[in-house]
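Our consortium's second objective concerns turning raw sequence data into structural hypotheses that experimental partners can test. To show how far this objective has progressed, the report includes one record in full. It was chosen at random from the queue rather than selected for favorable results. The single chain below, 122 residues long, was entered without modification.
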Amino acid sequence: QLQLVESGGGLVQPGGSLRLSCAVYGFSLDYYGIGWFRQAPGKEREGVSCISSDGGSTNYADSVKGRFTISRDNAKNTVLLQMNSLKPDDTAVYYCAAALFGNCVGDEYDYWGQGTQVTVSS
């Protein structure tokens, strides 16, 4: 069974940090690009960050550049999203998704996790 499971969300004060984890089960991460997306109440889902299947390419939404860092550990079948200098506007449910041979350019994401809530508030 192919499954992605996000963890690491929670409540944090503005300026704080969180590290989200996307654990992959049932398939090898080696061949998949991973994207992070988020959806805030009343808003459309937006792409946050992506890392290619070979790890050689990453990209970030303008709103998170310089604050978020994506990385992957294929041995652990895990992708991390380090989020620093968090702002209230970062509040959303964060999802990870997998795209076979994804290269962060027009990828089609076939598998999605259930999401983890991130709330940035004082």
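The partners drew two points from this record. The mean pLDDT is 96. The first strand starts at residue 3 and ends at 7. Both points have been shared with the crystallography group to help prioritize constructs.
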